[in-house]
Amino acid sequence: MRLYVSNLPWASTEEELKVLFEGFGKVLSCEIVKDRETNRSRGFGFVAMEVEAEGQKALEALNEFELLPTGDQRARGRRIRVEVAKSRPARR
Predict the structure, then answer these.
(1) pLDDT given at position 68
(2) Strand 2-6 with 41-49, pairing
(3) Alpha carbon distances (Å) from 4 to 37, 56, 72, 73
(4) Spatial distance between the Cα atoms of 59 and 31, rounded to a whole number of angstroms
(5) Running DSSP on this structure, what letter comes out for residue 64?
(6) CATH of 2-58+67-84, one of 3.60.21.10, 2.60.120.200, 3.40.50.10860, 3.30.70.330
């Protein structure tokens, strides 16, 4: 199951996101989308989980979860949003 995670704190890392979701099952991949020019987080990403039921549990538990970035103690947490990722239409 592929999940779309938005409203991520700017300082969040892929490793932090992976650890968070591994509490619910095996994570196949984790990606935070970054700006091409600045390489800064765009505030959203994707997590792929091996078992759909585990992905559903993660979605239910982590939607609206306040994620606190560990790197910057001055940074405030943000309530992340988790939903099932939609497939993109094919480009022409």
Answers:
(1) 78
(2) antiparallel
(3) 23, 12, 24, 26
(4) 16
(5) T
(6) 3.30.70.330
In the chain, where are the structural domains located? 2-58+67-84
Long-range contacts of 15-22 (CB under 8 A, 24+ apart): 16/69, 16/70, 17/45, 17/47, 18/47, 20/62, 20/67, 21/47, 21/49, 21/58, 21/62
Residue 91 per-residue DSSP state = P
Rounded to 10 deg, the angle between the 14-22 and 52-62 helix axes is 110
- Token look-up 């910057």 returns 72
Q: Write down the pTM of the prediction.
A: 0.86
Of the two residues 41 and 70, the one the predictor is more confident about is 41
Average model confidence (pLDDT) across the chain: 90
